[in-house]
Amino acid sequence: xxxxxxxxxxxxxxxxxxxxxxxxxxxxxxxxxxxxxxxxxxxxxxxxxxxxxxxxxxxxxxxxxxxxxxxxxxxxxxxxxxxxxxxxxxxxxxxxxxxxxxxxxxxxxxxxxxxxxxxxxxx
Length: 123
Fold this sequence. Notes:
- By secondary structure, this protein is mainly alpha-helical.
- It has five helices and no strands.
- Helix 1 packs antiparallel against helix 3.
């Protein structure tokens, strides 16, 4: 049962990370006429969030598939869940305060995945 929770959580957050990467060009263009340096920074931040989310899904997936179950896997699941909760709080107080629906949904997606990882570690 715990592996199923980890697989579901991993799939959700990997797909959410990909969903952060795909619109990067549109996100940058949405800021209008800004300097090339600012465009690079916005692109970097959008890509970094997406890559971080993908990593937070891939790591538990790999530990579940390739490692012996035990304390190490539990630490990975709980550490990933903790990071997702921190990212959810950050998004809640920043991007979720904008009118953009995807930023409003983001804290919930991160929190749901964190809960799946915590349950996967506990069961």
